[in-house]
Design goal:
The protein has about 260 residues and is an alpha/beta fold. Helix content is about 25%, strand content about 30%. The chain has a single domain, classed as Class I glutamine amidotransferase (GATase) domain (Rossmann fold, 3-Layer(aba) Sandwich), CATH 3.40.50.880. It is globular and about 50 Å long. The structure holds glutamine.
């Protein structure tokens, strides 16, 4: 059993993309969870924001995060992302940095988002396409099973992510693109395929808000460990009584 890391001088460098614009359903809470769970273990966590107009250094961060947003804000960010940040983000992905996108952010990590007949280009790190259909939004509590790929060292012995979804876009995975998980309850990518989210290497996308990480702290720890290049079992255990309860409640809300 490896020694816990505790205050080992490790440092998690997080880059928040468009935190001012892509922050629907308090998605910035995901950053707070990363920051607090590192701090409680004596691991320094530095969060840098990169919004409209800012450049991106692919070497300066271990984890890049982009939250969800309304179509209007998402349009603005998409143009900036493709023009100013996509190359750096792809380079960061190539060297193994973690990239996490939620909802609108997830859509922008894909190939395209078609909205009102206009095609908005994405970064192309996930081989997905999203179309805003003339149909009701997909809204509700959701739970997904990620057990097919996540390792045993993922903490709580739990392989279910629970949260809330609200998206007009329907996302299709192209051939060979792995989903993040299988839908247990809720709609997921398109309400039809049974798939939710997508993952490729260290890039992950999901429709789960809530925000995602406060309701699924085992996954937050898995991401932290991965970004630091250690096993989740090497992270010092925390008193997660409240967090485990929050996870159970989110699962229960979804009916799982
Ligand atoms: N604007 C996107 C959609 O409606 C994403 C919404 C969100 O991030 N919640 O599909």
């Amino acid at each position: 059993m490896p020694e816990p890391l505790a205050a080992s001088g490790k440092r998690l460098r997080v880059c928040a993309l468009y935190p001012d614009l892509m922050n629907i359903y308090a998605d910035r809470g995901n950053l707070l969870v990363l920051e607090r769970r590192c701090a409680w273990r004596g691991i320094a966590c530095e969060i840098t924001a990169a919004s409209l107009g800012a450049g991106l250094d692919p070497l300066a961060h271990d984890l890049f995060y982009i939250g969800g947003g309304q179509d209007r804000d998402q349009r603005l960010c998409a143009a900036d992302l493709v023009e100013r940040k996509a190359d750096a983000l792809r380079e960061a992905a190539r060297r193994g940095a973690l990239i996490l996108g939620v909802c609108g952010g997830y859509q922008l990590l894909g190939n395209s988002y078609v909205l009102d007949g206009e095609e908005i280009s994405g970064v192309g790190l996930l081989d997905i396409d999203t179309v805003r259909e003339d149909a009701p939004r997909l809204i509700g509590n959701v739970a997904i099973d990620v057990s097919s790929w996540i390792g045993n060292g993922s903490g709580a012995g739990d392989r279910v992510l629970a949260g809330f979804e609200n998206h007009g876009g329907r996302t299709r995975l192209r051939a060979g693109q792995e989903p993040l998980g299988r839908v247990l309850r809720g709609y997921g990518n398109d309400g039809r395929s049974g798939f939710e989210g997508a993952r490729a290497g260290n890039t992950f996308g999901t429709y789960l808000h809530g925000p995602l990480l406060p309701k699924n702290v085992w996954f937050a720890d898995w991401l932290i460990a991965r970004a630091l290049g250690v096993e989740p079992s090497q992270l010092e255990p925390l008193d997660d009584a409240l967090e485990v309860q929050a996870h159970r409640d989110a699962r229960r809300a979804a009916g799982v």
